[in-house]
Amino acid sequence: MNKYHERSCPVSLECNCYILSAPPPLEPAPCYLYFCPFGATCHVNETTRQPVCYCEQKCSRVFAPVCGSDGAIYSNQCMMDRMSCVRNRKIRRVSHGTCGTSPCSSFLF
């Protein structure tokens, strides 16, 4: 195919153009739009290529106790959140410190 320009090109500089086909569409990543509950993280199983949820929170050893809605005392908020993930159920903080009666429970309103 010859193209004409305002100035003609020497034959040795003419280019041979190739039309490249578009690459095939990419499949969505297995974790795309996959929801992992309770703070879990989605990872792809290398064998099955299926999404899998993992609880991988790493918590510090700082002691700042919290009382969970399951009645358990956790050493800190992160440990409670991690247990919520592992047990696959919602555990919320009821109070800071140990579980037990509220300091105001003896007051009558």
UniProtKB/TrEMBL annotation:
Q: Where is the Kazal-like domain?
A: 54-101
Which is a GO BP term held by this UniProt record?
cell differentiation
Per UniProt, the keywords (alphabetical) are:
Disulfide bond
Superkingdom of this protein's organism: Eukaryota
Give a Gene Ontology cellular component term annotated to this protein.
extracellular region
Look up keyword Disulfide bond and say if it applies.
yes
Query: What is this protein called in UniProt?
Result: Follistatin-related protein 1
Q: Which organism is it from?
A: Elysia marginata
